Amino acid sequence: MINNKSKILMLVMFSVSIILMSAPVMAQENEIENELGNPGITPDSSFYFLDRMFDWLQTAESRANEKAAEVLAMAREGKVEHAQIALRHYESAMEKRQEQSQGNEDVAEEVAMQATNHLILLAGVLEQVPEEAKPAIQRAMEVSTRGRDESISALTEINPSRGERVARETLQKVIDETPTQSQEGLTRAFNSIDSKEYVEAREETEITTSGGTTSGTTSGGTTSGTTTGSGSTGGSTGGSSGATTSSGGSSDGTATSSSGPAAVNLGTSGDFAILSKAGVSTTGTTSITGDIGVSPIDSTAITGFGLIVDSSECFSTSSLVTGNIYAADYDTLGCPTPAKMTTAVSDMETAYADAAGRVNPTATELGSGDISGLTITPGLYKWGTGVLINNGVTLSCQNSDDTFIFQIAKDLTVGNGAIVTLSGGCQAKNIFWQVNGQATLGTTSDFKGNILSATLIEMNTGATLNGRALTQTAVTLDSNAVTKSD
User: Is the confidence at residue 192, as pLDDT, over 80?
Assistant: First the structure.
């Protein structure tokens, strides 16, 4: 008669045999996978449930290595759904490792080194996997980056000098061992945890090597000990790629100048809170602080405001607007309004083209298009997709003149109740959202910045905007508050 222990032993032996039979040949042939170890049963196998069943047989360290190897194997084969499954397990394994690092400096250093090795290996294959699988690799890189960062933070709390040493060593290892073509992916990974330390360390290395400054960055000198992002290392105050940063730095490490790309010149379109080529409509009790303008459409396309034409016949007013309302057909008695509106619309189109044409982004595809919950520092950000802000996002500055440009190839969707939070002195007037599709602000959302949209800007019930709504089609409002930022 077979007892319970025998049953367990037989099941374990069966599972081990399945793992050995299922091991991909590619893992034996590829140096990168070999460094992580054999992925064993992968998520595309019908026996993958056995892998989950025997988690307890593995250490958290080997588990994390195996899951990273699974992500690599599935991504290489272009099996996106299975790569996503492996990715979820990898995140879970790294979270377990981070828990182990709390209060134990030896383990914290081990986790930092393990996460760094994962990051380098993942970055090494980022440009080799099929395009549709790249988001999974990028996300895994972000998990590795966060694992390194949090374990170093835990280590620094226990032993600050050791934490700083490990931070320096791991960052230098990333710089030394990562292929040049993977730098953009690494930048995105570090930006995902609100840290520019990779970009800045890379720039510092290039400056030291070449004896000059990197393109796009004017560095008047940095101050030792300035901390940027969420890492524990001392850092420089150079800007990220594509940003113009003048970093004089004071003796106490306080930044004294702005960072981010040069601001978009709105020209005379900046005189308006709302500017539209096809009309502005509102329902409910809306409040606009600033001027409204439409052109080439005429004033009949401004609805819901109860327009009162001024005696000059050059503009209208409304009880809902603190400011004037201009339209292309206000052309009697020699009014300059038509010319004013033609110029404003032209300036809006020029500003849109300027924002869309900026190059050398700080990061591309940040958050795979979902930036909900992120903290983002000044820079130029580019997406080939739409962008979702489901529950809010924080824009964090060090100076009031810091700038942001967001290049969005499709729609901008802001969820109901979502808040764009500005910290560190950020100003809405220095934030530019260039949207090639439609911009939709959900009910009661609180949005900041200048929206430069190619199509409709839709503000749902109770949404507020501190900035400007500048569109090449129409604006629809429903009991909203729009305040032009100055």
Answer: no
> To 5 degrees, how large is the angle CA 271–CA 272–CA 275?
135
* Cα dihedral across residues 90, 91, 96, 97: positive or negative: positive
Tell me if 183 is assigned to some domain.
Answer: yes
Peptide bond into 135 cis (omega under 30): no
For 309, counting Cβ atoms within 10 Å of its Cβ (0-12 exposed, 13-18 middle, 19+ buried), the class is: middle
Quote the DSSP letter at residue 423.
E
DSSP secondary structure code for residue 240 in this structure? P
* Cα separation, 461 vs 459, whole angstroms: 7
pLDDT at 127 over 80: no
3-state secondary structure of 237: coil
Is the pLDDT reported for residue 397 higher than 50? yes
Smallest CA-to-CA distance from 428 within 457, 392, 395, 466 is with: 466
What is the pLDDT at residue 209? 37
Under 8 Å between Cβ of 286 and 480: yes
Looking only at the bridges linking them, the beta strands covering 321-327 and 272-276 are unpaired
Name the helix (H) or strand (E) containing 209: helix 197-210
pLDDT at 120: 84
The mean pLDDT value for 79-84 works out to: 78
Question: Which domain does 77 fall in, by range?
Answer: 4-193
**Distance in angstroms (rounded) separating the CA atoms of residues 43 and 65:** 15
Two structure tokens written together for 186: 């690494």
Do both 31 and 175 map to the same domain? yes
pTM flag (> 0.70): no
pLDDT mean over 94-108: 84
228-237 burial string, b = 16+ CB within 10 Å, else e?
bbbbbbbbbb
Banded pLDDT at 71 (limits 50, 70, 90): confident
What are the structure tokens assigned to 200, written together? 């800045």
| pLDDT given for residue 231 in this prediction | 35
Taking Cα atoms as reference points, which of 405, 410, 395, 390 lies closest to residue 453?
A: 410
| Any domain includes 386 | yes
3-state secondary structure (DSSP) of residue 326:
strand
Residue written as token pair 């979270």: 95
Residue 34 maps to a domain: yes
Q: Mark which of 193, 210, 244 sits at the end of a domain.
A: 193
Tokens of 418: 């979502």
How much is the average pLDDT of 210-229? Answer: 33
Instruction: Give the C-alpha separation, 400 to 91, whole Å.
Output: 36
Q: What local confidence, expressed as pLDDT, does residue 50 receive? A: 62
